[in-house]
């Protein structure tokens, strides 16, 4: 068994799709198929059931997956331990973040990290909070940044590195435009623009109005991005609850008022995979992020 074959096997086992697995391991679909067939030939047993419409692991494949996961983890830790002996921190890192954070907080952090460790190749990707968590677990991302608390898990670690003030954004002619702050009771009868359930911004809204009746305030629609919500608020369609960074790039012609509800801020959380030994580049990035972002509250 070769580690590269086990890595490909783990990707197919996780996605149960040869096309998506090929994208994850950066190979053609034919190469993925060939590697799985080679691994099955080496072991003398089928690892996947291809007879049904949906690909599935055989009992042998399920048993191998546990060993493959441990072997790949050990290989990764061995590589990191050896790299620690080098005087130069190098390699590559893939950083992920919510689009709002990628446009506001992360550029300064990444620029500072590059000044300190120019031999490390950096990639920055945007994703929603669910995509960031799954990317960390699969190894597609090394570090991820999002708003809100991280769910408890044994395979990842997380820390709150900053706080973000929550704001209510209103159309310019809104009746509350002159207020210094607003709370749930002030907006119970207002129309609100929200993202889809499962999105971190929707969770902020649901938690902010958890003490009000289910029908108050009433969302008038679900929208795909904070950018579109910001534009619709500006056009007068309704109000929205957003972190301050959402207004940093294109503030627009709207009114932003601090939220006076029970939680006035939301944490900026950094997440990474749990390892016994971190690659030097990851360890350096985590330390730099804590230093550059640590304790910041944007108001």
TrEMBL record:
Residues 1-58 form the HTH lysR-type domain. InterPro entries: LysR_HTH_N (IPR000847), LysR_subst-bd (IPR005119), WH-like_DNA-bd_sf (IPR036388), WH_DNA-bd_sf (IPR036390). It comes from the Bacteria. One of its GO terms (molecular function) is DNA-binding transcription factor activity. GO terms for cellular component: protein-DNA complex. It holds the Pfam family HTH_1. Keywords: DNA-binding, Transcription, Transcription regulation. Belongs to the LysR transcriptional regulatory family. This is LysR family transcriptional regulator. It comes from Allomesorhizobium camelthorni.
């Amino acid at each position: 068994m070769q580690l590269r074959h086990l890595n490909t096997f783990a990707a197919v086992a996780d996605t149960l799709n040869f096309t998506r697995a090929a994208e994850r391991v950066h190979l053609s679909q034919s190469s993925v198929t060939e590697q799985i067939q080679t691994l099955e030939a080496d072991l003398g047993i089928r690892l996947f059931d291809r007879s049904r419409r949906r690909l599935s692991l055989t009992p042998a494949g399920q048993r191998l997956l546990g060993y493959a996961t441990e072997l790949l983890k050990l290989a990764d830790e061995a590589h990191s331990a050896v790299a620690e002996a080098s005087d130069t921190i190098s390699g590559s890192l893939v950083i992920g973040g919510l689009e709002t954070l990628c446009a506001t907080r992360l550029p300064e952090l990444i620029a500072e990290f590059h000044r300190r460790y120019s031999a490390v190749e950096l990639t920055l990707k945007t994703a929603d909070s669910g995509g960031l968590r799954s990317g960390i677990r699969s190894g597609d991302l090394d570090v991820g940044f999002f708003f809100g608390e991280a769910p408890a898990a044994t395979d990842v670690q997380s820390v709150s590195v900053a706080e973000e003030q929550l704001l209510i954004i209103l159309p310019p002619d809104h009746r509350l435009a002159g207020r210094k702050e607003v709370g749930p009771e002030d907006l119970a009868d207002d129309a609100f623009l929200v993202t889809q359930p499962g999105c971190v911004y929707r969770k902020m809204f649901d938690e902010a109005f958890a003490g009000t009746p289910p029908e108050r305030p009433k969302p008038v629609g679900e929208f795909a991005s904070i950018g579109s919500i910001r534009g619709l608020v500006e056009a007068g369609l309704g109000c929205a609850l957003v972190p301050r960074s959402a207004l940093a790039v294109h503030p627009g012609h709207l009114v932003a008022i601090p939220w006076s509800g029970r939680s006035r801020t939301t944490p900026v959380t950094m997440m990474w995979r749990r390892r016994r030994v971190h690659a030097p580049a990851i360890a350096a990035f985590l330390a730099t992020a804590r230093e550059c972002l640590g304790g910041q509250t944007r108001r």
